[in-house]
Protein: Transcriptional regulator
Amino acid sequence: MLESSIDLQLLHHAASAYYTDGLRQAEVAERLGISRPTVSKLLAEARRIGMVRIEVLDLPSVDLADLAGQVRERLGVEKVLIAPGDQRERDYRGLGDLLGEELRRLALRRGEVLLISSGTTTHAVSRARGLPELPGVIVAPTVGGQQEPDPTFQTNEIVRTFSDRTGAQPQFIFAPALPSPSLFSSLQADPSFRSITELWGRARVLVTGIGSPYDERAALTSVVPREDPSLRGAAGDVCLYFYDEQGETIAFPGSDRLIRPSLEQLRAIPSSIALAADPDKAVSIRAGARTGLFTTLVTDTPTAEAILAA
Structure:
């Protein structure tokens, strides 16, 4: 929590005007009706308490374009984008910037649909400053998750945060990721749920994370059985589709009732962007590429090097 003896709203107004709006300190002072020395004090205090974070990026130690080409050839996907350094140490900001560039290139139009999954990386990137404005674009979740205590698995909240950041139009799933058989049957006839499945069928872009190998995961959505033998050895997952090292999906108890798009719907999405930054996910990424569930990988240097070394 941010703590300061100075009013936090005043700190935020000053920091936003200077760092986000690009005003000079004199202009900030005029806007807020305070002196220029006071503006300087406010900006220093905002940095001290962590309201403003200034990052000096490392110079790339490798040719990122060449590295991306090697990873793309190894995985057989359409595109690979690589952020310098270890993005876990940067709260995935570099991945957010690259995702923003790719979404600008795709130039989504009003009424088109972007799907977003749950997970640590998508949760972090949904708050990224590098995301573009997406007015009128519909953003919808790929899985249910109302009951999840871990915010990284609260897909509706990730949708809300992403939409707030981009000005998009959020749509929500008001259902758990794994409903009971009776609720699952009822949902098929529910108009609000059917409106979400219709969006799944016409999505133009998917933004998803890639889950770590099942046996090594510290965090896991509550609807996936932690000790089920069918999942032992799973290389990773995309949108709760777990797969083995050959990219073959794995069924487990209840997986037929999971609230998620079908494999056919996911594979039909023209631009499926997977975000992953963790060298331990190298096997998950390589196997995930074999599933055909993503067309573009956004990663970082250590992970890209691990993919080639795996």
Observations:
- The chain has twelve helices and nine strands.
- The CA atoms of residues 239 and 272 lie 11 Å apart.
